[in-house]
Amino acid sequence: MNSDDPKAGTAPATCPMSGARAGGPMPSGSATPAMTTGAISKPAPAAAARVRSSGSNEPRKTLLLTGASRGIGHATVKRFSAAGWRVITCSRHAFPEECPWGAGPEDHIQVDLADTDNTMSAIADIRERLEGGSLQALVNNAGISPKGHGGERLGALDTALEDWKTVFQVNFFAPIMLARGLSEELTAARGSIVNVTSIAGGRVHPFAGAAYATSKAALVALTREMAADFGPLGVRVNAIAPGEIDTAILSPGTEKLVSQIPLRRLGTPDEVAKTIYFLCTEASSYVTGAEIHINGGQHV
Fold first, then answer.
1. What are the extents of the domains in the chain?
2. Active-site residues: which are they?
3. Locations of Polar residues compositional bias (predicted)?
4. pTM above 0.90?
5. Which of 71, 53, 73 is nearest to 61 (CA)?
6. 54: Cβ–Cβ under 8 A, 6 or more apart, which residues?
7. More confident residue, 247 or 271
8. pLDDT tens digit sequence for 147-169
9. Band (202; pLDDT cuts 50, 70, 90)
10. Sign of dihedral through CA atoms 84, 86, 91, 93?
11. Contact predicate 194/239, CB 8 Å
């Protein structure tokens, strides 16, 4: 599993494009990307290059992505940026000054999705930053899965009630809060919403805790409800359910699951990002209410 753990301490902020952590060097071989982010309180004026896609007279499309700092989120930033999209990232961490991502500090919003008031304030901030009052894609990728003191899985009997509440706020309530708060902008663009669920939402997983798994199962049901309610507005809503994805924060023992996967390997963040991109483009214009499994056949 590759979700953030709220009990693991405060991790250093990570550049969405390069993977660099605050205070550390840029990874070798990192290309200087076309755009950057930074946490500020007020939106800065948009650069002229942002208004139009490269080599096109069409307005540049915009993605709002939560949980952008690593793993699947990191790969999603790179995939959409490479296609010429403006990417607005949301994270509970401030943006690292070392990051070379050059489009401007207005493209990163520091928000604690576990805090409802902070989330509502962020929604108002996002609406101010959206050019033309439209949003082509919302990807709800942020997720948390608390662990025990030794990193062990927390089941239904030993997960504290406060942890249940926090997990559901981040994994379940924040996605619908963002979608509802930005519904006018999504409608204006006839946009797409992608909720990132998990293989753990459909089966008991050896690493994912009970609260995490239950929140992801609820998010699958919410995706169907949202597809029905947002459909008449011209907004599509789908989900992707990653399985074992090869990221820097794999749970110990993940390699033992490879033999149970029909394709006999872990997935890559880029494979997940490509599927997210598909669901946000015209290639999937008649797909809504679906949950796409990205797990090498692990669910069969």
1. 48-294
2. 212
3. 29-39
4. no
5. 53
6. 84
7. 271
8. 888 878 888 999 999 999 999 99
9. low
10. positive
11. yes
